[in-house]
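Example (one chain per record):
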Amino acid sequence: FFYYRHPPSHPPATLKSIALFSSIDKHNITATMATGVQVGDEVVKSFSAFKLQQEPYNLRYFIYEIKDKKTITIEKQGAREKTYDDLVEELPENDCRYVLIDIDFESSDGRPTSKIVFITWNPDTAKIRSKMLYSGSKEALKSALTGVGIHINATDHSELDFETAILPALKKFT
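Predicted structure:
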């Protein structure tokens, strides 16, 4: 979904732009634009088992893609033995993806722990249409993945660096 708030300090919307919006009052114009992309049944089913690390979903990660501009599906699965670096290598260089990964790490006080992390891979080099589709469909997937508290948006490989970008975000939640 895409939400647009039109502050009262800006000039009024034109008739053409008003047609896109679902409600208008004297202070705000609110739009709800859906991409029409749905979350596949297998994504929801596998997530429940993944959270509990139940067979056959005792995995390290899932990579999701949008198939035919209609459905979010599982593109790849990473076995439990795989690492975060293996995941990063599997992401396409010039196309968007969603990732769900169970990351094992050491907390600030030295305890071993793990967190499930949702990553949106939306590289700067991807086509504009793909970037818009993935950005606009992200909320549908996030709502299907209930209980995932850490969400990271990455647009280049520096934002996927484990030590400088991912680990500090994880440690905020321990």
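Caption: DSSP finds five helices and eight strands in the chain.
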